[in-house]
Design goal:
It contains four helices and no strands. It has 156 residues and is mainly α. Among the domains are: 57 residues; 52 residues. The radius of gyration is 41 Å and the shape is elongated.
Amino acid sequence: MNETIERYHRHTKDTRTGNKSMEENMQHLKDEAANMMKKIELLEDSRRKLLGEGLGSCSIEELQQIEQQLERSVISIRARKTQAFKEQIDKLKEKEKILTAENAILTEKCGIKPPQRANDSRDSPLLRESSPSSEVETGLFIGPPETRARRPPFQN
């Protein structure tokens, strides 16, 4: 009989201890959830302010801090964008080299004379357009199109 009573006391003691630790754990989880909700609320408020919403209650100092944070963010974004563009340019230059070499091999196989470089000053489109020997006909035509064909163009 004493053994049964002792087992009963041990079991009820273990249950009370287990309930106590479970209650403590539940309270800890509730506190942690409340803290997380506060953090989420602060982050949402900060996000709204960074998006320019709800600024009416901000002081001058808060507005200056938000402005500085946005400026730092823009600088970081521009730096990353510049880096991405440089990487893309490097890849394209490498691709250009590969394609140029491939083109040279193919033109050699076909026996075709390779085209002159576009950056050759003699073939520059800008120089050809501004050249005094370019053949551009200028003139002033008045009247319907039928009469234009019959009249000689205006000469300087």
